[in-house]
Amino acid sequence: MQSIVNIHQIVDQIERQISERPEEGTLPRAQVEALDVVYHALVFNHHPRGLALWREALWQRRLPEEARQAVVEMLKHVSGAVAHGEAQAASRICNCLQIFVDTILGDRESCDPLSVADEEAAAPN
Questions:
Q1: Which backbone phi and psi does 7 adopt, to 5 degrees?
Q2: Other CB atoms within 10 Å distance of the CB of residue 100
Q3: Full domain range(s) for residue 33
Q4: Contact yes or no for 59/19 (Cβ under 8 A)
Q5: What's the pTM?
Q6: N or C: which terminus of the chain has fewer CB atoms within 10 Å of its end residue's CB?
Q7: Residue 70 CA: distances (Å) to CA of 16, 22, 27, 41, 111
Q8: Phi, psi (rounded to 5 degrees) for 107
Q9: What is the tally of structural domains in the chain?
Q10: Per residue of the chain (125 residues), what is the pLDDT tens digit?
């Protein structure tokens, strides 16, 4: 049950990141990551309106319900696979999803994975 709560918290955060993006200029890394997750979820679910839904998220700054459900389903898949020992389940879809695995499993419950993406981008290499 805890992973389901975490999944919905992650999706809520993705939705916030998409809606809070700036009106103009470049997108911060967290927003790019959020849009990337939406894209991969739509592809993962073979959604027939995937491109239209992704464009709506990008241009209208909102996560359509169909896209939200696709993200939930993808994260449930990843959560279940990881719980069964498939540590690479997220990276088989895309490496961008690996950041969510700890949060889904509850290891970093209070951590915002999209903020971590911004922090990692800002860190010197």
A1: -60, -45
A2: 26
A3: 2-122
A4: no
A5: 0.77
A6: C
A7: 16, 25, 23, 5, 23
A8: -70, -25
A9: 1
A10: 556 668 888 899 999 999 986 778 888 888 888 999 999 999 999 999 999 999 999 999 999 999 999 999 999 988 888 888 887 787 788 877 776 666 655 544 444 555 544 555 454 44
CA 4 to chain CA centroid, nearest Å: 14
Give the other-Cβ count within 10 Å of 42's Cβ: 23
Pairwise CA distance, residues 9 & 122, whole Å:
24
Q: Are 121 and 29 in contact (CB under 8 A)?
A: yes
Rounded distance between C-alpha atoms, residue 123 and residue 109, angstroms = 22
Which amino acid makes up residue 32? V
